[in-house]
Amino acid sequence: MQTTSVGIREAKIHLSKLLNLVKQGREVIVTDRGRPVGKITPIGMESLPLPARIKRLEAQGVVEPLSTRARRRLPPPIPLPQDMAQRFLAEDRKDAKR
């Protein structure tokens, strides 16, 4: 990650330009008389809500938006004998502890 240092006055004047750098993945260090006092960094993907993360990935071209035709309903759940799902889950948890 590239870093840029700017003074407080310059940061006030050019905040929009600095935020554009941050959107591109750069980090901005804000200084007061040459001493670092703050940092502006991009928000990590994990701290964004899921819809915002998906929109960001679409904007970057990593994923394509789901077309309305592609959306399908899930099939109904497979019926299982009573307590079978709970037994499978309990076995799975035992195996995970090992």
Describe the protein.
With 98 residues, this protein is of the alpha+beta class. The chain has a domain at 3-60: 3-Layer(aba) Sandwich (YefM-like fold), CATH 3.40.1620. It is 41% helix and 17% strand. The chain has four helices and three strands. It has a three-stranded mixed β-sheet with strand order 1-2-3. A hairpin with a 2-residue loop joins strand 2 (27-32) and strand 3 (35-40). The longest helix is centred in the last third of the chain and has 14 residues, at 84-97. It is elongated. The two termini are 40 Å apart.
Residue windows where pLDDT falls under 50 for at least 5 positions: none
Radius of gyration: 24 Å
Question: With helices defined by DSSP (H or I, 4 residues minimum), what is the helix count?
Answer: 4
Please name the fourth-level CATH homologous superfamily of the domain at 3-60: YefM-like domain
How many distinct beta strands? 3
Distance between the termini: 40 Å
Supply the key terms.
single chain; 98 residues; alpha+beta; three-stranded mixed beta sheet; 4 helices; 3 strands
Short description:
41% of the residues lie in helices and 17% in strands. With 98 residues, the chain is α+β, with helices and mostly antiparallel strands.
Could you give the topology of this structure?
Elements: E1 3-7, H1 8-13, H2 15-23, E2 27-32, E3 35-40, H3 50-60, H4 84-97
Parallel strand pairs: 1-2
Antiparallel strand pairs: 2-3
